[in-house]
Amino acid sequence: MISRRIVPIVLATAFTLAIHTPVCAQAWPAKPVRYVVPFPPAGATDAIARILATEFSKLWGQSVVVDNRAGATGALGLEAVAKAAPDGYTILMGTATTHAVSPAVTVNLPYDTLRDFAPATLVATFPNMLVVHPSVPARTVTELIAYLKANPGKLTFASSGTGGSVHLAGELFKIMTGTEMLHVPYKGSGPALNDLLAGHVNLEFDNMVTVFPHVQAGRLRALGVAGLERSPSAPDVPAIAETVPGFEANSWVGTFAPAHTPVEILRRISIDFAHIAQGDEFRQRLLALGAIAAPTTPEAFGEFVRKDNERWRQVVKAAHIKVD
Asked: Which member of 9, 114, 119, 213 has the greatest number of CB atoms within 10 A?
């Protein structure tokens, strides 16, 4: 996760880069830009892309049109962008699922997420939260680990499907704590949450916006957030990393372009997003969606994606996960 503490450094870097931005980037865009979202309308990724498209349109003086290309867990949209001209007029809202998790669990994708896309900037992170049914005899991560070690395989953890980011979060927790739980996959996050609320499964890692209202209502118990730091939306809930150093299983969204897009354009997108991210209204709109603005340089985002990709590949290999 990109720490909030380095955002001022990123913004200062963006200002320096802006002074030296070449003329070709300053002239771009000269026509409307297509912002591909590889998921259906109405989801969080789509909502953030639409907010950002409006802000980019104001800065660029050109329309930024969101194009939903849903299907195959994002693969259809990514394939369209990978084949687009690398001129800056087609950009992509990629996610942890499309660029880190899917490549780790899916064979024969029609693109290479590291080779065929040029990173521009991380946009936002989504804190995931570890929640348990109130019947689970653990009120902290430490107590949960102790219970799991004393009762290996007794507790079940739900996910929205085998090989998804929520499933891998549970597998990563097992690996890093040396514990055993039984994975119960569902066809979507809704059925998984319903069974957790009913007590048919014991725990789950899921988006904080989805599960935290149930925590506040007393229907679930929050043990920790899955980032390296506490969430500003739930400051009293500790980060799992406070107990399990280095544990991180947050989701994220970021802006990419086709490979070989001029670096000056990538820097322009990064600089302009860093400017947008300073706005209180923009940050508050993201927080309402459970997201935290996290601007980066193209280079920092590229390294972030590479490390996230490798981390989930290691988890998939260690957990022997297979997706039909």
From this structure: 119
Q: Same domain, yes or no, for 118 and 263? A: yes
44-81: pLDDT as tens digits: 899 999 999 999 999 999 999 999 999 988 999 999 99
Q: Could you tell me if residue 324 is inside a domain?
A: no
What three-state secondary structure class fits 239? strand
- d(Cα 268, Cα 157) in Å, to the nearest integer? 43
91 in the same domain as 136: no
Summarize the confidence of residues 117-131 as an average pLDDT: 95
Distance CA 306, CA 99 (A): 9
Q: What is the mean pLDDT of residues 204-210?
A: 91
Q: Does residue 166 contact residue 204 with C-beta atoms inside 8 Å?
A: yes
Q: What is the pLDDT of residue 9?
A: 47
User: Do 207 and 264 lie in a common domain?
Assistant: no
Please tell me the pTM assigned to this model: 0.84
Residue 225 belongs to domain with CATH number: 3.40.190.10
Burial of 72 (0-12, 13-18, 19+ CB in 10 A): middle
Instruction: Check whether residue 90 and residue 203 sit in a common domain.
Output: no
Residue 15's pLDDT band (cuts 50, 70, 90): very low
Domain interval for residue 267: 4-125+250-319
pLDDT at position 5 is 46
Range 229-238, long-range pairs (CB < 8 A, 24+ positions): 229/1, 229/3, 229/4, 231/127, 231/292, 232/287, 232/292, 233/127, 233/208, 233/287, 233/290, 234/127, 234/129, 234/208, 237/129, 238/140, 238/141
Q: What is the tally of helices (H) and strands (E) in the chain?
A: 13, 11
Domain count, the chain: 2
